[in-house]
Amino acid sequence: MDGDLFEVAGSRASARERMAQLLRVRSPHTSLPRSFYTDPEFFRLDMQAVFEARWIFAGLSCQIREPGDFFCFEIGETSVIVCRDRERHVRAFFNTCRHRGSIVVDQPCGHKSSFVCPYHHWTYDLGGRLVRAPNLDPAADKSQLGLRPVHIRDIAGLIYVCLADEAPDIEPLAAVLAPAAAPHALANGKVVHSVTLHERGNWKLVMENARECDHCQAGHPELMNTLLIFDFADPWSDPYIASFWQRCEAAGLPSVTRDGADFRVGRMPFKEGNLSITMDGQPAVARRLGDRPDPDIGSLRFTHYPSMFGHIHADYAIVVQMLPKSAEETTVTCHWVVHSEAVEGVDYDLERLVQVWRETNEQDRRLVERNQRGVRSVGYRPGPYAEASEHGVWTFVEWYARTMQEFAGPAACPAAAQ
Ligand code: FES
Ligand SMILES: [Fe+2]
């Protein structure tokens, strides 16, 4: 099946109709037809149904530790301000002025006592309320002209936002991720390094790549010093993992892998004898994240569709955010987090801390871009996922297909692939 062009009822089908038809006829457990990775109209549907409707990873609460701290990021064309207000709550707002729509905050991050639109100086407090508007009719009701809020949720120091008017239920994720991540006290960490990669690949290829490790042995020599490969579909089948889970759970660390509709959270041991993901498997940071007395607690691995994954080791964490820019471009940002009181040059060496994941992310970028170039070919055809080792890939793709089917609606008309 090529499935890139459809005619419906004798006229050119809309993108939504084409997508619905392709989803209806696609084979399960195979990669998607080409349009899903390349078509700008399909990309627009992805943005509407997924990135503008679901919970999206924004960043870490430790990036906005004090009232007035903020950062901005973009979900498609929509810029979002994430800040901490005077009551120390995390808040998020659409970064568009309520006067005539200008971007209010240009800087990617910083500290402010208020947000002043540079155009005509409408001024908003940290809670988004309009407090000054020099050219506003005095009779106008300022209380109706605050920055529009964005749904926000802080889960154990991981901040998620949702642009939709009505946010989907995030409690299933919070119920699993919060107790699993809490022992690592990410909120008391600090981001000491961030790398942003502009990958020439569709966001789904970035997520697919992150959901399997069949490529790791050949593709990630540094990571494979320490990372354990396991059966994604049935981790319990490995006695090494089973005994690790029993030990960690007995010590009060939620560890057994748990799957939700749009997430997976689980603690995994490293290859035997290793304590962290570093070149030699020894900790990179002397001051551990959280207060666990045992350094041998593997890494908490978590993924939440569509925008993030992370690994929390005993001594440091990485959190990776994936944000689509176009049908064939994705911005991937990796943050490295250590204890807030860890001192560079004393408790850790930055190069040693970042080396493995920096190399791994760069290697993944090349894999994704090569994948993208291949699926652009007119000769591309969807191929089968491995039942066990690509379990994570097909569960993601099935989630995506279900999400888009609900959005695009049933394929109403018989259609023919050209
Ligand atoms: S557009 Fe912001 S003050 Fe005019
Ligand atoms: Fe990889």
TrEMBL record:
The keyword Iron-sulfur is annotated on this UniProt entry: yes
Top-level lineage group: Bacteria
InterPro entries attached to this UniProt entry: Rieske_2Fe-2S (IPR017941), Rieske_2Fe-2S_sf (IPR036922), Ring_hydroxy_dOase_asu_C_dom (IPR015879), Rng_hydr_dOase-A (IPR001663)
Listed GO MF terms: 2 iron, 2 sulfur cluster binding; iron ion binding; oxidoreductase activity
Record-linked Pfam families: Rieske, Ring_hydroxyl_A
Swiss-Prot/TrEMBL cofactor(s): Fe cation
Residue intervals of the Rieske domain: 55-161
Keywords tagged on the record: 2Fe-2S, Iron, Iron-sulfur, Metal-binding, Oxidoreductase
CDD domains: RHO_alpha_C_GbcA-like (cd08884), Rieske_RO_Alpha_N (cd03469)
Protein name stated in the entry: Rieske 2Fe-2S family protein
Native source organism of the sequence: Ancylobacter tetraedralis
